Amino acid sequence: MAKGSKAEKDATPKKAWTFAEEEIKVDEVKAEKKEPIKTIPFFSLWKFSTKWERAGIALGSVASLAIGAIVPSQIMIFGNIVTDIAPILANPTEDALIKAMVPLILNIVYLGIGMLVGGYIAQCMWVLTGEY
User: Fold this and answer.
1) Residue 79: strand, helix, or coil
2) What pTM did the predictor assign?
3) Cβ–Cβ under 8 Å, residues 73 and 111
């Protein structure tokens, strides 16, 4: 074989990869100066939105707040159930129990309907303003 031939070059052992070489590459990448991320003011997010999109966002926010206000009121209603049932359970009669429970059950139903409608409105407004 002639000196410097292709077969001789292929026969030379290749250098093994080391972690030190990888760390040097990582340090080189970190050393490169990156451009700072350009930020924009919060209210310029709505620069190109229409008045209907802004109204949808406002309506969706109000509906979300209403749903959030319903949850603590449920706790108060459950407290009223316990308070109103306790004296009746001492001397239970079917008529007294129904008379005490029907208004409380209706309050829970009304809260459920309010959460359903409010959740639907909130979700619709956020999806519609986000996609269109």
Assistant:
1) helix
2) 0.60
3) yes
Look-up: residue for tokens 């008379």?
99
Token couple for 17: 């990869």
**Tokens 């008529």 appear where?**
95
Q: What is the pLDDT of residues 59-83, one digit of tens each?
A: 999 999 999 999 898 888 888 888 8
Question: 82-111 burial, b if ≥16 CB within 10 A, otherwise e?
Answer: eeeeeeeeeeeeeeeeeeeeeebeebeeee
Which residues, 6+ apart, have CB-to-CB distance to 56 below 8 Å?
125, 128, 129
Q: How far is 60 from 67, CA to CA, in rounded Å?
A: 11
Q: What value does the mean pLDDT take over residues 81-110?
A: 85
